[in-house]
Amino acid sequence: MVSSWGTHLKMTIFGESHGxxxxxxxxxxxxxEKVDLAEIQAFLQRRAPGNFPWSxxxxxxxxxxxxxxxxxxxxxxxxxxVLMDNTDARPQDYAExxxxxxxxxxxxxxxxxxxxxxxxxxxxxxSGRLTAPLCAVGAVCRQxxxxxxxxxxxxxxxxxxxxxxxxxxxxxDLEKLHSLEHRQFPVLGHSQGRExxxxxxxxxxxxxxxxxxxxAFVLGVPxxxxxxxxxxxxxxxxxxxxxxxxxxxxxxxxxxxVCTLKGSENNDSFYLEEGQVRTCTNNDGGLNGGITNGMPVxxxxxxxxxxxxxxxxxxxxLETLSEETLVITGRHxxxxxxxxLVAVEAGLAAAFLDLYLGTFGLKG
Amino acid sequence: MVSSWGTHLKMTIFGESHGxxxxxxxxxxxxxEKVDLAEIQAFLQRRAPGNFPWSxxxxxxxxxxxxxxxxxxxxxxxxxxVLMDNTDARPQDYAExxxxxxxxxxxxxxxxxxxxxxxxxxxxxxSGRLTAPLCAVGAVCRQxxxxxxxxxxxxxxxxxxxxxxxxxxxxxDLEKLHSLEHRQFPVLGHSQGRExxxxxxxxxxxxxxxxxxxxAFVLGVPxxxxxxxxxxxxxxxxxxxxxxxxxxxxxxxxxxxVCTLKGSENNDSFYLEEGQVRTCTNNDGGLNGGITNGMPVxxxxxxxxxxxxxxxxxxxxLETLSEETLVITGRHxxxxxxxxLVAVEAGLAAAFLDLYLGTFGLKG
Amino acid sequence: MVSSWGTHLKMTIFGESHGxxxxxxxxxxxxxEKVDLAEIQAFLQRRAPGNFPWSxxxxxxxxxxxxxxxxxxxxxxxxxxVLMDNTDARPQDYAExxxxxxxxxxxxxxxxxxxxxxxxxxxxxxSGRLTAPLCAVGAVCRQxxxxxxxxxxxxxxxxxxxxxxxxxxxxxDLEKLHSLEHRQFPVLGHSQGRExxxxxxxxxxxxxxxxxxxxAFVLGVPxxxxxxxxxxxxxxxxxxxxxxxxxxxxxxxxxxxVCTLKGSENNDSFYLEEGQVRTCTNNDGGLNGGITNGMPVxxxxxxxxxxxxxxxxxxxxLETLSEETLVITGRHxxxxxxxxLVAVEAGLAAAFLDLYLGTFGLKG
Amino acid sequence: MVSSWGTHLKMTIFGESHGxxxxxxxxxxxxxEKVDLAEIQAFLQRRAPGNFPWSxxxxxxxxxxxxxxxxxxxxxxxxxxVLMDNTDARPQDYAExxxxxxxxxxxxxxxxxxxxxxxxxxxxxxSGRLTAPLCAVGAVCRQxxxxxxxxxxxxxxxxxxxxxxxxxxxxxDLEKLHSLEHRQFPVLGHSQGRExxxxxxxxxxxxxxxxxxxxAFVLGVPxxxxxxxxxxxxxxxxxxxxxxxxxxxxxxxxxxxVCTLKGSENNDSFYLEEGQVRTCTNNDGGLNGGITNGMPVxxxxxxxxxxxxxxxxxxxxLETLSEETLVITGRHxxxxxxxxLVAVEAGLAAAFLDLYLGTFGLKG
Lengths: 364, 364, 364, 364
What we know:
Four copies of one chain form a homotetramer. In chain A, strand 5 and strand 6 (74-75) form a beta hairpin. Chain A has a single domain, classed as 4-Layer Sandwich (Chorismate synthase, AroC fold), CATH 3.60.150. The first copy, chain A, is globular. Chain A is an alpha+beta fold. The first copy, chain A, contains eight helices and 18 strands. Chain A has helices at residues 37-47, 107-113, 131-146, 174-179, 190-205, 233-241, 263-266, 337-360; strands at 4-5, 10-15, 21-27, 64-68, 70-71, 74-75, 80-85, 151-159, 162-163, 212-219, 247-252, 270-273, 276-279, 287-288, 291-292, 297-303, 313-317, 322-326. In chain A, helix 1 (37-47) crosses helix 3 (131-146), helix 1 packs across helix 8 (337-360) and helix 6 (233-241) runs antiparallel to helix 8. Chain A has a five-stranded antiparallel β-sheet with strand order 1-2-3-7-4, with helices on one face. Helix content of chain A is 26%, strand content 23%. Chains A and C meet through strand 2, strand 3, strand 4, strand 6 and strand 7 of A and strand 2, strand 3, strand 4, strand 6 and strand 7 of C. Strand 11 of chain A pairs antiparallel with strand 11 of chain B, so a sheet runs across the interface.
């Protein structure tokens, strides 16, 4: 326990990578909201394995069925359940995993946690595949949020050593940000994007992998959402985003870079723009004291290199308790960052709908 | 809502910076645990304002009273309430704050969130002063954890541009780590410590402030604690640590640095040491799939420069809606990092007791 | 929100009476527990519509599929999702319901609560049909509990004015109680059972319905489960049992009858039996201060007459806002009590597994 | 865990009967609400021991201090903490209790649950004294609710065999109901009240005690509050009300009496009154499918005879494990019902504010 998240919107994710179905239940959606199935499918497509030419991963249609919570094309307000089939399962690829855990995967910890009873195939419940139902939920929440003027855009800010072009966090180019969702490789700088892809392809050629950073913007957020101390927006977003496999860092605004700044450099001074209170800079990422201040909420998510690599690695045979070299055969993805980006967007959509409902209620 | 945290251990923090009392209630403590009051006081002393020669902040005795949950020196198992008085309150220092919000503080967002009804004095419920009861709770949890072989050590890893000496995350020098709690300025490298203090003093002289990074180690953690997806250790720790004011980044193990590594460099290979499964490196910070793997849990916490500085700053008069220069008079702390470090330790103690109880129950 | 329940075991129920699927997700099950599918099916059969000769209700096979959380016949410890199809849906029967709400049903309140967006067919998410997934979850929990020595038995204590034979709550005949689950009409007294069936058949013949009381016993419960104040066993059980449609009263032990007793009559004196502390009477139903005392836990559940009756009733046309006579056509069940009994057993199984895990943890 | 309750409003109660202080923290109150301290004190006075001439119980001033969450007479919206001193503690009265548990008290179960570490004095955390902070919280919530048109009235419906006069649950006399809070003995029928007091005095004279039933009405409730299945109003209210010591039954509307009714008698037909949908009868107590329907919410609470009696009782010496006669000396209260009534009112106030916030949010 618990694969659940949320305060006003409650989301539970279930399934194993190679079980019959994966899915999610989300409770607390406002009733009467139009649900555009094609838009959900398009959103899922952005995450789908097999979408990326530089990758050779498992192919899943990632089609979905909503079996509850939607009636005549609108949310009922009662729990929405979305289901997806696992169609391209190849459990035989994972026969060894239980015995010989993959480094930096959950094979070993899952075995200990569940006393050997967990489903070991493809990481079971720990698999990145479980972000698919998160994305389906997020796709529904996005539609509801956008009717309230809140939108989400995310870019690949870094792959390996290659960084995307800089952005003014206080006054980002909204049109450019919103164009990201239509790009197969969502970076702002085209040349930087090409370099990143080269880094990924080189890693694949070597049987290796690379990590990176996703930077997401939540735009149109009213000031005053969130709660103090442990109910702060940062607490809630981080607890959700760390639910995405391979995330090892979450920061806000200027993030860890603020450590090297002086207060006089880092503080976001206030000014007025057309009668609205705004800040000159946005090092705080739109958040003060855990509460939104009306500026763009900026979230940085650090994603580690995919732990599944083709190179030989040292592991330990858990049955004989002896060290052994592990070679992972079969497909692998040299960089999970582009797919994790979609999960980050989805998570933020769920989180901001939760925050919105907390302030405005179901009648809001 | 909600200034509460926890799954098996439930902690609620209350109070305002200049109200009559601040405190915390913690429910779910195992019964019959000895509570050493002197040890709690010593732990609080490490956080207390006025403890640091390079700082000139408000002085609070930070004495505490436990009014429930302890009987004859041991936990009863029913809710423990700890209270602290606010003795050195100078509310007049804060008269202007409601009208003219301090940049990068919660003055503006608190006003919006609570429709102007929040206590503006010294940040009210948003004040860093609220970490005092967190520390009292953490001090109790530390005692209980240490009887189960789990200890916590934290160091200042960076102030401004100055970094502490490097540590092997997989095999840290335990003796050195445990000595940190007895040092007034908890860094491993003495010369680096002196440099950091110089940076802080320079900032104070300029009326400015600096930020930094705290790195904490949780040692002796059994493998198998935590839960998948949103119940992962990272999710839980981050949601707690972001409750500490001025925290803008939380990462685990090698943190954001993993983005530039290859999978073959980042993966923590397994080996055997006296029959125990261990990892050669510890880039994952002791956590795979949200579950502890038995290696030290390593957490990095990025803390922004204290937003209260003596230099003039631009703000907006919220009553006349006009821009105005703000000058904050009175004491200020040029660097919150050493005090935040104690709160990080406290938070981790609460979090790991919560995790421990989740696996082993009250009978464990 | 929220169709969820539980502290250590978390259960979420989803679906609408005439939607494509209904189901439940349960998180927090101990790993490695054998799941006997045939036993689940047999348990569901006891609840299934069409099981009762005196009733002429909708027929549902109530077959189920577990799509996650079970691997090679054992729980994985990760969320278990069970799905059921709605096969005998006749949505046209319910065309009028949205306009003309059925008295004492949720048609009117559901419409208000969800601003008209709820699925009106057969009560939608409010339907008694949603107890089917609860029963599936309960059937799994029963198996796990029985391995820990805890069993549940329930009887129909009253239908209309007819009461079952009296039971000594402190020393019930265990063999007789355990035989109840094998009886189509679970009463202890055979003649009383025949009378109750006659009452039900008479109601059906009149196009009317009757209510009754279920009394359940949880046996083999160790002392010390539960928590004080709002975490008491009574609080938890009642919050779950009121999730079963038509339940209007929940009491424990001697229930409301204690109001007429003196303290000297009602108090359960202690005595010793083979070195065990026990009580002479069991008016408190095995619970003191919200905590189990080792005696049988006794729960009484009052169930109202099925609100769907064939007789004409007065309602209000919500579109024209005029009073109108409503005649409900189609099948209806004259007494929900025998089926609600199975849901009560299921709920108690989930609740006691939750309580057990709270004390003994996952390692217990 | 957990002495906490609530979804949108979170309340935690702490303290032991003879510890230094008892209190409560409530989080989630809407900001800017006027808090009338005299009104709180008057409400507490209604519950205070020593208020009742027919009783000779412990005298506590039950004065309170609010130490957080109120600024300049209004709620801040951040956690409100209320504290009370235990002034009339006589711990020596309770010396034996740990060894020789009082029948039908929590002495035995508390000892098992907390492995002997609980505070045994006067029941410790299990004491009815803990309803004092619940009443303080409820007194605040009442004030906030009444500004939204929602009021609460409760009567003693039964003491021993004596019942109060009948009430039309659908159209109760509002003026009469509202007068109850100003009466020392809140019954509707004066002669019945005199009889009840006679029953209580007789019990006291015999060293015995009596139980009874409280019936509460929540008036002015808008339709549409609450949630389906486990989030229903009944589930929430029952889980709260069972937190009041000595409560053994909670039912709604006509309660357990519905079991003997036909559906045609029990169903609450709809009609129109000045354009509003209302029901002719109110057997469902204003609740259908867990959601309010706009009629008065009617709750019945069955309270057992006070287990502390002067008559000798059989108990078990837990140290020597031998049966022994227990004689409780010192003051005792022959009937807890009048004081429990105030706690019921308080609990309902908290519960309905929670429900209200769930629908209308903080902006509502």
